[in-house]
Hints:
By secondary structure, this protein is an alpha+beta fold. The chain has helices at about 15-25, 50-65, 80-85, 105-120, 145-160, 175-180, 185-190, 255-265, and strands spanning about 5-10, 30-35, 40-50, 70-75, 95-100, 120-130, 135-140, 165-170, 225, 230, 235-240. It contains eight helices and eleven strands.
Amino acid sequence: MEPAVCLLEFSSIAKGIEAGDAMIKRSPLQVIRAGTVHPGKYLVLVGGLTADVEEAMQAGREVGGQSLVDVVFLPDVHPDVVASIGGARREDTGEALGVIETETVAATIDAADAGVKGARVTIRDLRLADDLGGKGYVLFGGELAEVEAAIDHGIARTAASGQDVTHVVISQLHAEMRENLAADPRFGERTRDVEKPAANWDDLPTTLAAPRGRPLPGSGGAERSGGAERKGDGTDVGPVGGVPPAAKPRTGGGSRRAKRGRTGKGT
């Protein structure tokens, strides 16, 4: 019998762990991989003989209940899909690039399997959930006609899920964009070692502009201080805008009550 894989995607970590336990207890699986992904979901991936994997999938469905977000069962999974799930990335000589982006990990794996089976393309990369807000995407590379066929097969396979699927085909991928896709796809890693441009001091202005209404110190112009204009030598030249400066508080004369009022004490 052909090897099969199944992936169950849960919105609850607790229910995902319980489902994974039930799956491995139900049938003799060859492999089980389980763990958390962004944003707080839990994945259970199992592999083995088709009948055993199908039995385990049923157990996971029963336990997961309403927390089961999505599921994919591939009774004859393409070996390139298995390798890509494990992190394998490949280069190709074709000019075209196809991208399928889905809302769940299960749907992305399903689209990747359909695309690589339906056309002569290379799975350049398969990105799943982490650092993607739970989404996934697959990159197909090859000749334009083959890439278009792979996209069509992938979209047709995922149509039954009813979720939003975004896809594009780029007929001639630019060399610099190809280089970026071949490198670490995370933006933060791509910019970590970028050299910061040095400041060119020759481009800075040679004179500084004074703040509005205030001349530079030492310029000889009139400056404002305490509501009055003052020359560069400190001599008052009169009130600003014709308004007399505030009167100084009296220090002598007047009634005792007036003094208390000015100092903020009670009468």
